[in-house]
Amino acid sequence: MIKNFTQDLKNDLIAGLLVIIPLATTIWLTITVASWVFDFLTRIPKQVNPFNDLNPFLGNLLNLSVGLAVPLSCILLIGLMARNIAGRWLLDLGERILQGIPLAGSVYKTLKQLLETILRDSSDKFRRVVLVEYPRRGMWAIAFVTGAIGGGIQPQLPEPMLSVFIPTTPNPTTGWYALVPEKDVITLAMSTEDAFKVLISVGIVGPSMGNVQTSTLGDRLQDGAVIPDLAQTYSMVPADEE
What we know:
Layout: H1 2-42, H2 56-82, H3 85-99, H4 102-119, E1 128-133, E2 140-148, E3 161-167, E4 175-181, E5 186-188, H5 192-200, E6 212-214, H6 230-233
Antiparallel strand pairs: 1-2, 1-5, 2-3, 3-4, 5-6
């Protein structure tokens, strides 16, 4: 009882940190930029400062409002540029220059991939969360089903296969694409968002991993299905014989 309470408390603490740290970073960055703009405005000569004749409280309030509006306007402007051809070309040029810097380029690329993964809607891209036996028998990895095999591939295979993406941790934007027999995957009762939490936190944060159900031949299983005996499902080979 105490152990479960401690584990739940630990998970809640880490989950809170995962939310607070990005939020606090954003707030800190906004306040820093706003303070810089505020300091810049207060250094304007009194003769040309439009806020000089106002009440000090109103002047400070207006300066702070302008300081907050400047970074927000910059973000909106960059977003507008990213949505048109000319602006996208300029942003791509800036990205290529930034990625050419040895350390900053790697950090920028990693952060960009991570944010794209978190912010984009992945519900249409990842059908469901599954377990696949990877990288060897007896070891399991969280993966995402991206679709069924079709076209000219499935007819060449002896059984129904699934397209599966096996992400890496703690950066789930990279990984491996594999074709896995449909009968050999175990579907988890877990949302894509929860799976990303588990991957990014390397298993520290996430829902209970015990709530799983077997997936055979797509979604045709009835509720209440149980995981089959893995020893019967797979031909387990000792490590020294592989």
